[in-house]
């Protein structure tokens, strides 16, 4: 992994595969151009970047996110009443975690999947509730030349249907529980993305399939797709491609969904956890 140098922020890598913690930045204040450019550079280099001890209002989080592009209002997961672009990801004590559990890339079932996700932690368990990330550029690089050739030009079909009609999802529709879903036609869509994408800034290739939303390969049957898809999803999340982010109150983490996929852990049933997520609109993937 390459470690570029930075003049305007401190950067400490989180693993040998991806992820870094950034210091010397107060995200409640407008960022100077040079500092913001270093943050963008760190995001491209490390895929997921965390900031500790940030005292942020919802508006501060939105303002930071707006530096990267326009913000999404999720078609299924209801946002906060006053801030529709913020999803309050609350997991109450005594209940298992179910939102974002399992490897995925946020909103890969959109025609233009989310460029980045920006999450701020308000309440975290004393231990547990970490989020795992896996570097999909590294996962691609570590494939053999033979399989890389097979994947060249291959298109995968992504769908929200299975994830958003699972038993734990169905109970969220129109619920007054901590996370509420609204019905959307988007779950009937079958969306095409290349299996190997190029990052629009660095040009680096990455695998772009995930166990939660990737359904089958275009022009392949489900039976034909299953073995290769299972292999790719298992390969993509091998532990040597991973880092683990340990949430603390007032941590903010941003990740680039074109570089990483992630999985929230369901290992803190006795505790509350409240995070706030915004996602930045992405572009069509090539
Ligand atoms: C998600 O955005 O997928 C959830 C992440 C988390 O709760 O750790």
From TrEMBL:
Gene Ontology, cellular component aspect: cytoplasm
Annotated GO biological process: sulfur compound metabolic process
Occurrences of domain TauD/TfdA-like (ranges): 11-279
The protein's Enzyme Commission number: 4.2.1.17
Alphabetized InterPro entries for the sequence: AtsK-like (IPR051323), TauD-like_sf (IPR042098), TauD/TfdA-like (IPR003819)
GO molecular function, one term: metal ion binding
SUPFAM superfamilies linked to this entry: Clavaminate synthase-like
Keywords carried by this UniProt record: Dioxygenase, Iron, Lyase, Metal-binding, Oxidoreductase
A Pfam family it matches: TauD
Enzyme class: lyase
Family: Belongs to the TfdA dioxygenase family.
Protein's name in the database: Enoyl-CoA hydratase protein
Source species: Candidatus Micropelagius thuwalensis
